[in-house]
Design a protein that fits this description.
Layout lengths: L1 H20 L25 E5 L17 H13 L3 E6 L21 H11 L1 H13 L3 E4 L10 H7 L4 E2 L8 E2 L7 E4 L26 H15 L19 H19 L11 E2 L8 E2 L1 H4 L2 E2 L6 E2 L10 H7 L8 H7 L3 H13 L8 E4 L6 E7 L2 E7 L16 E6 L9 E7 L6 E8 L2
Helix pairs in contact: 1-7, 1-10, 2-4, 3-4, 3-5
């Protein structure tokens, strides 16, 4: 019971802190007077641009990025013609196969290759601009998987972006380290999130080969909630009580149930929980599931807490982290507690890279949280910088309510007074607005 009490109390505290920090501004205000974000003041091609979380959808009825497609195309066109840009890195969630209503067949009964081509056609301007940059070969374009596209294979990415460089280090994961700047690491950040990190273990007996974490299913339920505009749930959740005779695993299982319960209460749908509505046919899943298939259950009050899908998810986090190449393992209780706290992902940049004695990284860029920001850290007492590349979804999110974000890194020159700059922008109004910047010398 001590674990449950601690988890619940700390979770409430973190929810409060998250709500509080979301009101902070990431800078003193936009500075857009004469900004050219892609100029280093010289002729050298050395700048690295990072964008992430575009969330391209195949159906404009529910895609998260529709209004911002035009500005994104125009930003990519500016990058293409910029003589100082050396690399463009897409740090995950370019292709979105999660943000689909639960009752919709994502692939329409076809293959992933058909889905990605349909998606590229629906977002033709963006993919045309990216392919022009790739084919011109003046700028190296690199793709890193995110959680919303963790099931998209390298072959499918290459099908719609032929010739793109792909950085992958585990299934559904990747970290990109530019050859010209080895002290920089770029990844999406979902590797460190309990609900979003690839999970090849929990369903290995019933759905062998799948890596979809449970966050995938709850995202699809949330999209159905949005499409139904539902305010009153069509069913009642069964009550689960703590297994007082259980061990730590059972205490964690109870907390996992509380998380599922909270998500479903916040995203009600009109359907009964026993109704088979969640259509899969992707990433190894073939069945149509009910919400009850996802929820932990208990046959008798205070008895054993079990699961159908994701059985033992509370017990296999250590092994999941090993498979997912997590350098510094996160305790399972902390991972469960912080999975919906965006600040915890940012802090992992420090844990995994700057405070890790085996890491020499001085600059780290994540996406995933949709909260664009720059944060200073130190690595062995030496200044280091973390940046989050924000998002391109239509709805404003994160600190200061910004969107259409990107990060630009300009390496230092041989001049001893030169600095390596990390700058964060948004492209609202189709103008580069500088939100924040920091610098260091390595």
């Amino acid at each position: 019971m001590k674990i449950i009490t601690k988890l619940l109390s700390v979770c409430l505290l973190m929810s409060f802190l998250s709500a509080f920090t979301s009101c902070k501004k990431s800078s003193d205000g936009p500075d857009n007077s004469g900004i050219n974000p892609f100029s280093n003041g010289g002729s050298e091609r050395n700048m690295i641009v990072v964008i992430s979380d575009m969330h391209m959808g195949a159906d404009m009825a529910y895609t998260e990025c529709k209004d911002n497609l035009g500005p994104l195309v125009r930003l990519l066109q500016q990058i293409k013609t910029a003589p100082n840009v050396k690399e463009l890195v897409i740090a995950g969630d370019l292709i979105d196969e999660w943000f689909v209503p639960a009752n919709v067949n994502t692939y329409l009964g076809k293959e992933q290759s058909d889905f990605v081509q349909r998606l590229a056609a629906a977002n033709s301007g963006v993919f045309a601009a990216l392919n022009q940059i790739i084919q011109e070969k003046k700028i190296l374009v690199t793709y890193v998987p995110g959680n919303h596209d963790l099931g998209i294979t390298a072959a499918s990415v290459d099908l719609i972006l032929p010739g793109i460089n792909q950085a992958r280090d585990a299934e559904g994961l990747g970290t990109y380290i530019p050859a010209s700047l080895p002290l920089l690491a770029i990844e999406h950040g979902h590797r460190f999130n309990f609900a979003c990190a690839p999970d090849p273990i929990s369903n290995k007996d019933s759905v062998p080969g799948s890596t979809l974490p449970f966050g995938y299913f709850y995202t699809r339920i949330a999209v159905l909630h949005q499409m139904q505009n539902c305010t009153v749930a069509g069913d009642t959740l069964a009550v689960i009580t703590p297994n007082v005779s259980g061990n730590e695993s059972q205490q964690l299982a109870y907390f996992y149930w509380k998380i599922c319960e909270t998500v479903l209460r916040n995203t009600p749908i009109t359907n009964k929980f026993s109704e088979k509505i969640i259509v899969t046919n992707s990433n190894g899943f073939t069945k149509t599931y009910a919400i009850n298939d996802l929820l932990p259950f208990q046959l008798t009050p205070g008895g054993f807490i079990d699961m159908n899908l994701y059985r033992g998810v509370q017990d296999n986090w250590e092994l999941r982290q090993t498979i997912n190449n997590v350098a510094v393992h996160i305790p399972v209780a902390s991972a469960l507690m912080n999975q919906r706290n965006v600040d915890s992902i940012d802090i992992q940049a420090n844990t995994q890279y700057f405070s890790n004695p085996n890491s020499n990284k001085r600059i780290v860029v994540f996406g995933h949280t949709h909260v664009a920001r720059i944060m200073p850290f130190t690595n062995n007492g030496i200044k280091s910088i973390y940046a989050n590349s924000g998002t391109w979804i239509d709805e404003k999110s994160g600190a200061g309510g910004t969107k259409m974000n990107f990060v630009v890194i300009t390496p230092q020159s041989s001049d001893v007074s030169s600095q390596t700059y990390v700058k964060l922008y948004n492209f609202e109004g189709e103008v580069a607005n500088k939100m924040s910047e920091d610098s260091l010398r390595y």
